[in-house]
Amino acid sequence: MPGTCMSNTQQTIIDIIAKTCSIEPARISLDATLKELDVHSLDAVQVLFEIEDRFDITVPERQDQYAAGTVRDLVAGVEQLLAAKAQAA
Predict the structure, then answer these.
(1) Nearest to 71 by CA among 89, 6, 56, 86
(2) What is the reported pLDDT for 62?
(3) Do 18 and 12 touch, CB atoms closer than 8 A?
(4) Pairwise CA distance, residues 47 & 44, whole Å
(5) Across the chain, which distance is largest between two alpha carbons, in Å?
(6) Residues 6+ apart with CB under 8 A from 85
(7) What DSSP string runs through 62-84?
(8) Is the distance from CB of 75 to CB of 10 less than 8 angstroms?
(9) Domains of the chain by range and CATH?
(10) 23, 51, 84, 87: which is deepest, by most CB within 10 A?
């Protein structure tokens, strides 16, 4: 996404969605939902597993939230989990 400054978390999540779901990274905007990107529920679960592995966190089992929310919501959720993990360490 030329002209935008993305956090490492945002870029990593977009890369995971792109790789896992075979979507061109340029098509993935922060305001898109996984449904709008045609990410099916099994792929969404795989995306969550990849995020957990990459960031060494546990994403709560609320897949409906991730399917209905935007990529920005997903990034925010991961950043909250990372902040909580950092505080606990």
Answers:
(1) 6
(2) 63
(3) no
(4) 5
(5) 37
(6) 56, 57
(7) -HHHHHHSBHHHHHHHHHHHHHH
(8) yes
(9) 8-88 (1.10.1200.10)
(10) 51
Extended strands (E) in 23-70: none
Q: pLDDT per residue over 17-46, tens digit each?
A: 999 999 999 999 999 999 899 998 899 889
The tokens for 59 are 């994403």
Pair of tokens at residue 11: 């870029």
* Length of the chain, in residues: 89
- The answer to whether the beta carbons of residues 75 and 30 sit under 8 Å apart is yes
Residue pair 47/77 in contact by the 8 Å Cβ criterion: no
Dist CA 86 CA 3 (whole Å):
30
| Sign of torsion over alpha carbons 73, 1, 45, 36 | positive
